[in-house]
Design brief:
By secondary structure, the protein is an alpha/beta fold. It has a domain of 161 residues: P-loop containing nucleotide triphosphate hydrolases (Rossmann fold), CATH 3.40.50.300. It is built from ten helices and twelve strands. The strands form three sheets. The chain has a six-stranded mixed sheet. A hairpin with a 2-residue loop joins strand 11 and strand 12. It is globular, with a radius of gyration of 18 Å. The N and C termini lie far apart (43 Å). The relative contact order is 0.18. The structure holds 5-Methyluridine triphosphate (M5T) and magnesium ion. Magnesium ion binds next to helix 1.
């Protein structure tokens, strides 16, 4: 079982099934239980592709990803999806109530659990302003929510499972700084490992370490101070 939330990439390369070209190239790094790692890099650098290998949306074409010391293939998909909260870059809501969308995959979630997850995801106040509040229908045949609101419902959906590993793919891009800060403070109380893709250096700096990707490669990994000293590309990003 996944109880600690460590992640190890061992010489991992990946190409999409229909393609010859590696979009993740020979990547090695380790994330300790409870550590927060930010992933940054320009568009197309391979950040989303790297993330997708952890909940096994795809398997590497080379190398090995391990969680808590065991290769991912040792775990059932149910176990992986239950312990890893993966919030995709473009989250999907299905047609149903807000409650259904947050509790999805966690049968028997209580009202309290649903509301706590929504509060932590900083979406509770917005939900309370909808016509039918938590019973409002959303998704394709429901009210239209903004991209940022969908992202936060999707974060609540991940948080309600109390994941050991939380993965946010640019999920805070639509939030103002104060709201994002409250969200990250709330996530701190979950004591999970967090991997967060972000374009914002201020968000990256809240993590313990930062992984910089470029053209599928890991260019640098370390603290903000370490990367300032070691990486010209990182300095360029900070200055821009
Ligand atoms: C890296 C290609 C993409 C790019 C490379 C998700 C996805 C990506 N790609 C596919 O062929 N199929 C896919 O389903 O892979 O793309 P990425 O991993 O999406 O990069 P990113 O997340 O760093 O970029 P962005 O824009 O989200 O910051 O060649 O075409
Ligand atoms: Mg992406």
């Amino acid at each position: 079982h996944i109880t600690k939330g460590s992640v190890v990439f061992d010489n991992v390369s990946f190409a999409y099934p229909e393609s010859e070209e590696d979009v993740v190239k020979d990547i090695n790094f380790q994330v300790a239980p409870g550590e927060k790692l930010a992933v940054i890099g320009s568009t197309g650098a391979g950040k989303t592709s790297l993330f997708q290998l952890i909940p096994r949306l795809y398997d590497p074409t080379k190398g090995k990803v391990s969680v808590d010391g065991s290769p991912l293939s040792d775990y059932s998909l149910d176990e992986l999806r239950g312990s890893i909260g993966y919030v995709p870059q473009s989250p999907l809501l299905f047609t149903g109530s807000v409650t259904d969308n947050i509790a999805w995959g966690k049968d028997q979630a209580t009202t309290e659990e649903i509301m706590q997850a929504a509060k932590d995801a900083q979406i509770h106040d917005t939900i309370m302003q909808l016509d039918d509040q938590y019973e409002t229908r959303v998704g394709q045949k429901g009210v239209n929510l903004s991209g940022g609101q969908k992202q936060r419902i999707s974060i609540a959906r991940a948080l309600i499972r109390k994941p050991k590993i939380l993965m946010l793919d640019d999920s805070t891009s639509a939030l103002d700084l104060a709201t994002e800060s409250r969200l990250l403070d709330a996530i701190d109380t979950y004591q999970c490992t967090m991997l967060i893709i972000t374009q914002k250096i201020t968000t990256a700096m809240r993590a313990d370490r930062i992984l910089l990707m470029d053209e599928g490669k890991l260019l640098a990994i370390g603290t903000h101070t370490e990367l300032l000293a070691s990486s010209a590309l990182y300095r360029k990003i900070v200055e821009s």
